[in-house]
From TrEMBL:
Residues 24-139 form the MD-2-related lipid-recognition domain. It comes from the Eukaryota. This is MD-2-related lipid-recognition domain-containing protein. InterPro entries: Ig_E-set, ML_dom, ML_PG-PI_TP, NPC2-like. The lineage of its organism: Eukaryota, Viridiplantae, Streptophyta, Embryophyta, Tracheophyta. It comes from Canavalia gladiata (Sword bean).
Length: 150
C-alpha cells in the first residue's frame, strides 16, 4: 500500500513539473497516436552551448512497449540541420508499462552552435516501425557559454 501511494505521489509530482513545460504540437492533429505526450521540459532553458542539456518528455501509453526507436530532427529558422535516431530503451526504462513514463535525453551541443530559436520534431516508433507519436516543439540556444569561452 505504501509503495503504491509513493508511486502515485511521485507520478503526480512528475506530471505537475511538466505543466509549465515547453509548448508541444502533434505533427498530425487528427491522428490517434498510441502514445500521448503530456509535456516537454528542457534544462537549462535556454540551452547553453558547450554545456549538457536535457530534454525530458512526459508521456502515457495504452500499450506496453518492449522496444522501439526515437527519430529526432532539428531545424534552425526552418532549415533542417540535424537528424539522429536513438533506441527507445536507451532513453527510458524498458519494458515501458501501460501508463505514464518519461523519456530523457541529454547531450552537449557543440560550442560553435549558433544561438537562436530551433524546432525539434520527435517521432516514436515501436519495434515493428509503427509510429506511436510525433510531436514538435521549439527551444532556444542562448548566447552564453561555449567551448571557446573555456
Amino acid at each position: 500500500m505504501i509503495s503504491s501511494n509513493l508511486f502515485f505521489c511521485s507520478t503526480l509530482c512528475l506530471l505537475f513539473a511538466f505543466t509549465n513545460a515547453t509548448d508541444i504540437r502533434y505533427c498530425n492533429k487528427k491522428a490517434d497516436y498510441d502514445v500521448e505526450v503530456k509535456g516537454v521540459k528542457i534544462s537549462p532553458d535556454p540551452v547553453a552551448r558547450g554545456q549538457p542539456a536535457t530534454f525530458s518528455v512526459a508521456a502515457t501509453t495504452g500499450k506496453a512497449l518492449s522496444e522501439g526507436k526515437l527519430v529526432i530532427e532539428v531545424s534552425y529558422f526552418g532549415w533542417h540541420i540535424h537528424s539522429e535516431t536513438h533506441d527507445l530503451c536507451g532513453e527510458t526504462s524498458c519494458p515501458v508499462s501501460v501508463g505514464d513514463f518519461v523519456i530523457a535525453h541529454s547531450q552537449v551541443l557543440p560550442g560553435f552552435t549558433p544561438p537562436g530559436s530551433y524546432s525539434l520534431k520527435m517521432r516514436m516508433y515501436d519495434g515493428t516501425n509503427h509510429e506511436l507519436t510525433c510531436i514538435t516543439f521549439g527551444f532556444d540556444i542562448g548566447f552564453g557559454s561555449s567551448v571557446a569561452d573555456s
